[in-house]
Here is the input.
Amino acid sequence: MAPRPAGRPRAFDRDEALRHAAHLFWQHGFSGTSTRMLTAALGISSSSLYAAFGTKADLFAEAIRSYALRYSAIYERAVAEPTAAAVVERLLLESVTEFTRTDEGHPGCLTSSAVMADTSSTFDVRKYVAGLQRTDEARLRGRLEQAARAGELPPTVQATMLADLVQTLWQGLSTRAELGATREELIAVATFAITLIPQESTNS
Amino acid sequence: MAPRPAGRPRAFDRDEALRHAAHLFWQHGFSGTSTRMLTAALGISSSSLYAAFGTKADLFAEAIRSYALRYSAIYERAVAEPTAAAVVERLLLESVTEFTRTDEGHPGCLTSSAVMADTSSTFDVRKYVAGLQRTDEARLRGRLEQAARAGELPPTVQATMLADLVQTLWQGLSTRAELGATREELIAVATFAITLIPQESTNS
DNA sequence: CAGATTATGGAGCGAATGATTCAGAATAGA
DNA sequence: TCTATTCTGAATCATTCGCTCCATAATCTG
Here is the structure.
């Protein structure tokens, strides 16, 4: 269903190139990454890069889009857990694992790279990422409110407040990953935070 | 005690120029902010800028330092509190207030702006900021370890771990401030988080 | 006043930037 | 094989970059 198009075939793996590019963007930022750094790292010429991805801003936008979806997927899997505690635990731990991935040229956490405003691409990266995160937050809040109605949370704990707290932790873990914290450190922090969240009677 | 030096006096306010420069750097990052943007926004010529601040990296570093000092001051005041709980509370609440300042052209929070996302080959921004924050983190950790030795914390709570958690919350609050959260929301989150931190017997 | 000192604006340097052009190479369908 | 199509590498375009030079202006001390 993906018929080889006419013409000379591309001599490099587009997906792999995209991953390398994302890695560079994550390390140096948008303006901090030059097209020459990209072509050198990808091992292709400038014209090949432009033919495959368009302008630098287009390439950046595509990199952001392809990786931002991973976070949404984590939220989606997390809220499917049966209890509020399991939801929070899975969300934080899987996110930490994702933030600190270094294998296969994975770019790490792109959230703060996305904050850049001056891309001037036709695609508004900032707005896109902000919207995606709003959706994720809403999903978590909805799930915790549902848990509250099910009596999973002590009456002193408002679901919205707990969602805000988890979200704050999530952002903090992301930032610390970017500052160089190791996976073990962040997992320890996340685990510790989870133990502090009060649950209804069944435990502690 | 600040005798007017010989020579032609500077025609612009150095501190105000530094604030403007910081504002631009926060918005566009280091490599995203050109010297021409700076001179245009500051209303001065290139030679004046270089005479007053040195290179672009020097100007950037000075801008970072001047704002990092605010956070250091908060940490310093916080660790002077008599109890661990008071330390954490003061740290988080005062930081939130600082993060959400909007007066006098305050450029917003340093740590989660575009500053962190945009580096250059000649200046490793992340490493520089991380280094400045390490001092604050060490101060907090030392204070909590002291509290642990004084028996203020339950034996199940390691001081280092608690410090890491508070630090993670701090980063998260900063990011959420940058994303547009209001002061009231963040204060509510911080207050809620503080209530979850266990204390030794004297208070439930 | 004269001499020393410092700041200013404008011009412009060499290097790097994002992006394009173009002749040629590699494929598909006919 | 021939034509249409697509990709490649090298050269290179115009622009912008960080930064400096320099003649001049404004202030100091004496």
Summary: Chain B is about 65% helix and 0% strand. The CA atoms of residues 37 and 178 of chain B lie 23 Å apart. Residues 4-9, 11, 34-36, 46-47, 50, 55-56 of chain B lie near DNA strand D (CB under 10 Å from a C1').
